[in-house]
Amino acid sequence: MRVKIGTSTDFPESTLVSVTGDGINILAVRINGSVYAVHALCPHLNLSLRNGTLEGHVITCPWHGSKFDIRTGKNLDWVQGIGGFKMPGWSRALIALGKEPTPLTTYPVSEENGQVFVELPKRPG
Ligand code: FES
Questions:
Q1: Most buried of the four, 25, 58, 68, 82, by CB within 10 Å?
Q2: Could you tell me if the CB of 64 is within 6 A of ligand 1?
């Protein structure tokens, strides 16, 4: 399902923007001219990535420091610590609560005539 999430000017370079499409919370960001969209909740504990840190194409979760490539959703690091403080390996495993590294959901973006769209999965039913 193709859903409009805004106009081109709504997505300035390197700025995380919260949008909603078909009831799904999405974070979108323009990087080097292209807009990327990801699910707004971290796959670790489903907490918001809205206040995450963006460095280049990498977003870091503000809760436990997992890192994802915003272009592909690939998990680059999983549960580093709490509140920006890195933890040793054994405690990282505790904080992970048994959850295995999981990629971040991405949504294909298209930009046409100043309008920005995402392709969302069709909902069952
Ligand atoms: S909720 Fe994102 S790393 Fe824990």
A1: 68
A2: yes
